[in-house]
């Protein structure tokens, strides 16, 4: 957690010092980059044999959790980028680690494009999100929070199997 806070503060400071025209969006992108990196590194670290692991029958398998993250990227970032939720059912259809990782990377690329379409000038524009109006930057920050929430699930899954999560490496 300390490392994540340090990275966030560094990203915000660099955005402010670099004379960026978009320090608000750059700071939001910095948080997104942290969680995107943690998710993708987790996908690399978790062995193929663990993708069907399910700590209890009531919760998602590792693969389903990654699939849910991918589907959510499209749904949440779609509100900002295209105004609609692109059709995505990774959680229900992709079965192998290779299929799921490919889908997660594509979903993050979609969110990257959403971020690249944003500036501080249009960050406050509102879009429809879960039946309400919300600023574009708030929607993107919700995506970061949601993704971190599920990274926390992955951390628990990894710890159960004695895998050090990416955010804890070197600590």
Describe what is shown at a glance.
The protein is mainly alpha-helical and 171 residues long.
SSE order, one letter for each helix or strand: HHHHHEEH
How many domains? 1
Fraction of residues in helix: 55-70%
Strand arrangement within the widest β-sheet reads 1-2
Overall description:
By secondary structure, the protein is mainly alpha-helical. The chain has one domain (2-168): Up-down Bundle (Four Helix Bundle (Hemerythrin (Met), subunit A)). The chain has helices at residues 2-17, 23-45, 62-81, 90-93, 97-116, 136-160; strands spanning 126-129, 132-135. Helix 2 (23-45) packs antiparallel against helix 5 (97-116), helix 2 packs parallel to helix 6 (136-160) and helix 3 (62-81) packs antiparallel against helix 6. The longest helix has 25 residues, at 136-160. Residues 1-8 and 13-17 have low confidence and may be disordered.
Quickly list its features.
Four Helix Bundle (Hemerythrin (Met), subunit A); 5% strand; mainly alpha; 171 residues; two-stranded antiparallel sheet; globular; 2 strands
Question: Which helices and strands appear, and what pairs or packs with what?
Answer:
Elements: H1 2-17, H2 23-45, H3 62-81, H4 90-93, H5 97-116, E1 126-129, E2 132-135, H6 136-160
Antiparallel strand pairs: 1-2
Helix pairs in contact: 1-2, 2-5, 2-6, 3-5, 3-6
